[in-house]
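User: Um, any thoughts?
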Amino acid sequence: MAATRLPTYFITHGGGPWPYMKAEMGGVFDQLEQSIVDIRQALGERPRAVLMISGHWETPGFAVSSGATPGMVYDYYGFPEHTYHIHYKAPGSPELAERVADLLRAGGLPVRSDPERGYDHGTFSIMKPLYPDEDVPVVQLSLEAGLDPALHLEVGRRLAPLRDEGVLIIGSGSSYHNLRTRDARAIEPSRLFDGWLQQSLVEALPEARSRALIEWENAPAARLAHPREEHLLPLMVTVGAAEGEPGARIYHEDGLLGFWTVSSFRFGDVPSLAKS
């Protein structure tokens, strides 16, 4: 079980329930899948639990899933019938949910427990390749419906102590998310916005990173890349939880779905790498 400080991750989570329909996908998400498997291999020891911030859950104030045996949320449309019967069976963790709520309340942030919330595809599409044995507890934290980037950075700062407690913090979204442009119109804006992410998250000084994210709408092609920013906001939480620590790109693909340039990022050092 992890006993040193864990990094945080922002992962582009792919389309719908893709880990459960790889035959139908024809290898579209193979590179993404390998990048997620690589995370498990780099970490080595399993974390005590995963805290997932998914772009598919928004609430007034914040909410944290507190059920011991979460169900499923099939929040997608037009997929094969069998994908509406899948079940990612990892347990929840009421104890971690309470710890998350306490940390946020201590910072004056509004939060409530939700014992009924199940795993949405922003959660299980990552967890299935990351921990396929379904034996690592998962707690989910919602986005606040106002989608304020500064607020979500502050949430990350409040949650940072979890990294020393064996909790792996993952933001699940997408570096590019404009479902209306699954054609050649996506090539240039996704490339431009991805380049800005690389510069802001990896190449710039860490102290400049948070400022850039608060002002993300000024980035090249920002609103073409994210007409609505719910798939970007999980990034703010993961950066806030590792503020001042180095960023690294761990997945990059030109032409996902034929046209999208997308990336995933890590913040902070992997313990095994930090020792080497």
